[in-house]
Amino acid sequence: MQQGINVFIEDSYSSRHKFVWVTELVGTKMYNLHFDGLQIVRTEIKDELATPKGLGLQPMLSLPETISNIVFKEIAETLSRKGIKPDNQHTLEGELRAKQEHLDDMRMIVKKTLKID
User: Burial, 18: exposed, middle or buried (Cβ in 10 Å; 0-12, 13-18, 19+)?
Assistant: First the structure.
């Protein structure tokens, strides 16, 4: 697990909900983060092998299965419009732009070689 904030999405088939768990790793200590309606609460996780509910931890977000995919999709699209994208998305866009420029260069070479205007 990497230092900093980590997000996990749990599918609970028994409750038909999706839970978004947020943890923070600082040095050798791990914390669960959740919102209590007023502020973010940070609780140290002392037993990493216990279940979150067994430790009395709460998810950052709980959504019914019926709307969770719609909400997650809307969040992703809104973040993308605001320029917030996963690192791999920026890489893919860069690769696509480089391939397009390469194709443009190849077209120009072919046109010059075949003397096409």
Answer: buried
CA 11 – CA 64 distance, rounded (Å)? 10
Cβ burial, residue 20 (10 Å; 0-12/13-18/19+): middle
**How distant, in Å, are the alpha carbons of 49, 52, 55 from that of 43?**
16, 11, 10
Q: Locate 84 and state its tokens.
A: 């917030």
Per-residue pLDDT at 18 exceeds 60: yes
User: At residue 16, what are phi and psi to the nearest 5 degrees?
Assistant: 55, 45
DSSP designation for 102: H
Q: pLDDT tens-digit profile of 31-41?
A: 999 999 999 99
What Å distances lie between residue 92 and 48, 78, 87, 99, CA to CA?
35, 19, 9, 11
